[in-house]
Write a structure and sequence with these properties.
alpha+beta, 1 helix, 19% helix, binds zinc ion
């Protein structure tokens, strides 16, 4: 019985930890930037047909801006460089 109660007490903490892993996703076509804990739906991109989402990295407390497309993200680590809307790679610098 005691063990069962401990598990019950830990459950909300465990579910909270999994839902809090937010990442930035950017569409390289319409430049929409969103925070999501799952890969976003690809349907209905304003720039035509489907979004081309790219995971930029986990949401954190460091500001990075791309010198090419001007997008600003706040991530834990240096963001992913792939798929800059201005062509090829993002050029991140920390603010
Ligand atoms: Zn899009
Ligand atoms: Zn860029």
């Amino acid at each position: 019985m005691k063990k069962f109660l401990i598990i019950l007490a830990l459950l909300p903490i465990l579910t909270l930890a999994t839902t809090l892993t937010l990442s930035y996703y950017e569409c390289s076509k319409c430049r929409t930037l969103i925070q999501s804990n799952a890969f976003p739906s690809a349907f209905n991109c304003p720039s035509g047909s489907t979004h081309n989402w790219c995971n930029l990295g986990e949401v954190g407390d460091r500001n990075y801006q791309c010198r090419k497309c001007g997008i600003l993200v706040k991530t834990k680590n240096y963001p992913n460089s792939f798929n800059c809307p201005m062509g090829s790679m993002h050029y991140w610098y920390s603010l």
